[in-house]
Amino acid sequence: MAAGRLTARRTPEGGQAGSPSSEDGRVESARGRGDFDGRLGRAHPARSWCGRPPAVIATGDERNPAHLHGRAWDAPGVADGSNWVAAGAAVVAAAVVCWQSWETRRSAEASEGAVATANAALELTRQQAAEAVRARIDANTPAITVHLPDEPTWPPLEPSVYLGGEPLPLHVGPMTEPMLMPRDRARQIMIVTPVEIINESTRHVTVEVDELFDDKGAALSGPILLDPGQRFGARFAVTRTLEEWISVHRAREAGEAGAEAVGAVRYGDPADTGAIDRWELRLSGCPVERVSELEAGWRLIPAPAHTSGRPGAIGLGSAIRERQYYLSKRRNEKLPD
């Protein structure tokens, strides 16, 4: 058969293979059965007949390769090299940020350490300067001593009812007449302790006192001038009514200290940069105790017995000097501890 001649072949549908009518009939048949994919222009393979591959009719659009771009038939995309470059740059940037943060933290810690070292050196210098000032003040302050015994003078005294009269000693012991409450609640009982102030320096000094009395029971007022080496005697006196002493006794029975009596001796260095010395005089305890035979009876204890621990006992603390150093008394500027 000559070239270009079309050979007719009958198909199952009655058409001829290779003819347009045959192909159109096949397409129409596929469409009628719902096996034709109109979008892709082909019949589903599962709906082919006689074991032959289904015919695929390509439309005009599908003959153009550009028509297939972006569809399921596209070839897998190829990785873009710029993405790897960007990722690497991000990793490097993160590493640089971490390194900068670490360096910043290390620099901050080093700065804090340097500041702490400088502050410690400054504090040491300040303490050394303060110690030098204290040593100079100590060398220029006169030596004064205040002596106070452990126990008061016994027996207690009763102030005179007469103006200017001397106090009289009270009777103590189990045979003395008891004091009764509330009959004797206003009766006054005075506890007296001798105090000695000694100027051990080679210059004149002036001291001030609180709650100190002379031998006649008169309160000492105003500054007391002491010559070099002089010893000055005074009395630390505490006067309370029987009712007030009983309140102290009951507090001590309850485990409390009770009211204490406080006196003081003070010396002030006249220099602006100097010291102020203070000796505190403290008396604690109670000079009376209960009378077991009488519900409201009280009597004086036979002795101070300051170490007995009983509610009815009385004693004194040591007169210890407390010194306050001043850079300037006029400005009330104290030397730091």
What order do the helices and strands come in, and which of them pair?
Layout: H1 20-33, E1 36-37, E2 42-43, H2 81-140, E3 144-147, E4 157-158, E5 168-169, E6 179-180, E7 188-199, E8 205-210, E9 212-213, E10 224-226, E11 231-241, H3 242-253, E12 261-268, E13 275-285, E14 288-290, E15 297-300, E16 314-316, E17 321-328, E18 333-334
Structure class:
alpha+beta
Number of helices: 3
Cα gyration radius (Å): 58 Å
Helix content: 25-40%
Largest sheet: 7 strands, antiparallel
Q: What is the count of distinct domains?
A: 2
Order of helices and strands: HEEHEEEEEEEEEHEEEEEEE
Which spans have pLDDT < 50 for at least 5 consecutive residues? Answer: 1-51, 55-75
Count of strand segments: 18
Distance between the termini: 130 Å
Quote the beta fraction. Answer: 25-35%
Please tell me what the overall shape is: elongated
Average pLDDT score? 78
Describe this structure in words.
The chain has 337 residues and is α+β, with helices and mostly antiparallel strands. The protein has 2 domains: 49 residues, no CATH class; 196 residues. It is 26% helix and 26% strand. The strands form 5 sheets. Strands 8, 10, 12, 13, 16, 17 and 18 form a 7-stranded antiparallel sheet that branches. The chain has a 4-stranded antiparallel sheet with strand order 3-7-11-9. The chain has a 3-stranded antiparallel sheet with strand order 6-15-14, covered by helices on one side. A hairpin with a 6-residue loop joins strand 14 and strand 15. It is elongated. It starts with 19 loop residues before the first helix and ends with a strand. The N terminus is likely disordered.
